[in-house]
What we know:
The protein is an all-alpha fold.
Amino acid sequence: QRITAVLRYHHVIMDHIALDVLSHELQAILLGNEAGLAAPVPYRNYIAHVLQGPGDDAHEAFFREQLGDVDEPTLPYGLAMTSAEQIPGEARLKLDSALCSQVRDQARQLSVSAATLMHLAWAQVLGQLSGRDSVVFGTAVIL
């Protein structure tokens, strides 16, 4: 028997880590191994955890300390796009599955996400293109 599922979600709802957990749980259920899964934790527990954490002032102080000396983002070749007409089209590159596995394995060994390693690689590219040792760029990250 073959089962096909299509999962459609926004990255605000589920990041790659949550998708890995969901995939693992679905596979366990389909193979009849759901007894080995951890009991689900109510979402309200997560909300309580977040509310007990540092407030906005602490977060702002952290980022001011980390980024206080940044005057501008790191722009490849020093080029700033000033209008919508200058925004380039989309480019996609499919990475070899062996390379993807190596990146995931390395991330696990370092206790970081594969996204963190890709951000590091992008930082290295930006540093080389801009001639800077320290670079700043934005990205969407869900923790």
